[in-house]
Amino acid sequence: MYNKVRVLCWIMTSPKNLQLKATAVKNTWAKRCNKYIFFSSETNHSFPTVGLNVSEGREHLTRKTVQGFLYCFKKYGQLYDWFVKADDDTYMIVENLRYFLSHQSPEQLVYFGHKFKSLVKQGYFSGGAGYVLSRGSLNKLAKVGLKNPFICRQDGGAEDAEIGKCMEKLDIKAGDSLDIYGRESFHPFKPIAHLEGQVPDWFYNYSYHGVKKGLSCCSDYSVSFHYMSPSDMYLMDYLLYHLRPYGLHPKDSTKKIFVPFKDNFR
Amino acid sequence: MNTIHCPHCQNIVGPSDIFDDRIYVKNLTDEVRILVWILTGPQYLDSRTIHVKQTWGRRCNVLLFFSSVENKTFPTIGVNTTEGREHLTAKSVFAWNYIYKNHFDDADWFMKADDNTYVIVENLRYFLSTKNTNELIFFGHHFQAINKNGFFSGGSGYVLSKAALKRYSTTPSITNKCRKDGEAEDAAMGECMEKLGVEVGDSIDSKGRSRFHCFDVRSHVFGHYPKWYYSYDSHGAKKGIENISDYPVSFHYIDPKTMYLLEFYIYHLKLYYDQFSPILQ
């Protein structure tokens, strides 16, 4: 699947986060992507990070994101099937991401993540939980959306909501990533928070498919978690890639856990 | 059962038939029967012990709870001693003899654990499947301290073979000289086993990695150890992913929240892989 579902992961970081947070991402999940790039406000040749011409700070996250997508499109737009944007405290389970994406088409105008309602009619995706664009969507975003400030806002606002509004204007669908049991795959918080239902009040108003706690919160093939500290990431690596219960087969039976996104509005 | 200390915990793991779709390709449940007894107290039943019962305890062949007070509903077996650290050894002595008298034929191996120990029962069976229960031997996280042969940490859980349990319960000439009460039941047990001629088993795997752990997962992964551990641990107080077995048996100081989290990580969250993709470490 590594060669069939080619994923480029780009991680948003900053100079002060390189040593601990970005390093943890690099040492854990980033290397499982077909390609990974770290974006920052400054170029750092040894890490390495690609410097975008943007100042640090929440007010410029949209611009950083826009520039990041443009860079990826220019250099790699035709070389990969899917383009994942993550933060330096997002942990992606890349094999599960590929598995999920293997049910989808890279040419389709669709993107996936943890869906929020409000602000955008079709919903938009939490930035922290990570979201993934098809090759087709990135193409349209870069060639059409980002060339026109009336379609895509170039700076300011909340990055995830602005990208969400822009995707809707471009007719790029916000796909669903619930598994066949109705469980979410991309998560805006840590595993314990979702399992226990210890999430902030605002989440209840934003989460498109509601909030479930207990085992219903999270697909067995979950793709991402957020607010993961460096030590959370190393721990996750041990629990996921090393620790195993003897005798239990790692794969499910032949059950299909995800279904292809069908655009019903065409 | 009133779970005031972890109000959401009971919602996390329950009868979840549709989620329990793991396939056992090798199920050792009938081949390597495990009896686990938990050392606990009436004040811990709601805050700790119930969560052992609802998580990993379910996977044991036999699960018993020993407390200073009998509780017919939980159920716990009453040991007729006062609560408190100073009486842990009395509880332990009682429990082992009780198990020998009442459950000797119900299991192949006999493990003592605490109400804040988390055991991955499949890995315990896997480890013991290559051992001989008719040998005088016991296993656990070894400390080289106090006794000549050291002892196994009580918190990490320790396991007796059938032969060791029988020797313990049927040799009054020696066990009468063993400490019958007081603190540190694990050190007392270590000393007693030494007198009985029970071998100190080694549970380090072929790659030099540990299976039984007296601290929680994070502590061993990052090496957050108290000073005393460096002089107690028999294997150099190693740390890091490369020094922990992929098939660990136990961890200690696991609170209820973390027990449910471990259930999620170990038995539910899965890594998708097909035979063609390398699992890149």
Automatic annotation (TrEMBL), chain A:
Pathway: Protein modification; protein glycosylation
Membrane-related topology note: Single-pass type II membrane protein
Domain of life: Eukaryota
Compartment(s): Membrane
Major subcellular location class: membrane
Stored InterPro entries: C1GALT1/C1GALT1_chp1, Fringe-like_glycosylTrfase
Family: Belongs to the glycosyltransferase 31 family. Beta3-Gal-T subfamily.
Name of protein: N-acetylgalactosaminide beta-1,3-galactosyltransferase
Species for this entry: Tegillarca granosa (Malaysian cockle)
TrEMBL record, chain B:
Keywords recorded for this protein, A-Z: Glycosyltransferase, Membrane, Nucleotide-binding, Signal-anchor, Transferase, Transmembrane, Transmembrane helix
InterPro entries in UniProt: C1GALT1/C1GALT1_chp1 (IPR026050), Fringe-like_glycosylTrfase (IPR003378)
Major subcellular location class: membrane
Protein EC: 2.4.1.122
Residue ranges annotated for the Fringe-like glycosyltransferase domain, each copy included: 33-200
Biochemical pathway: Protein modification; protein glycosylation
Superkingdom: Eukaryota
Membrane topology: Single-pass type II membrane protein
Subcellular location: Membrane
Keyword flag S-adenosyl-L-methionine: no
Family that this chain belongs to: Belongs to the glycosyltransferase 31 family. Beta3-Gal-T subfamily.
Name listed for the protein in its UniProt record: N-acetylgalactosaminide beta-1,3-galactosyltransferase
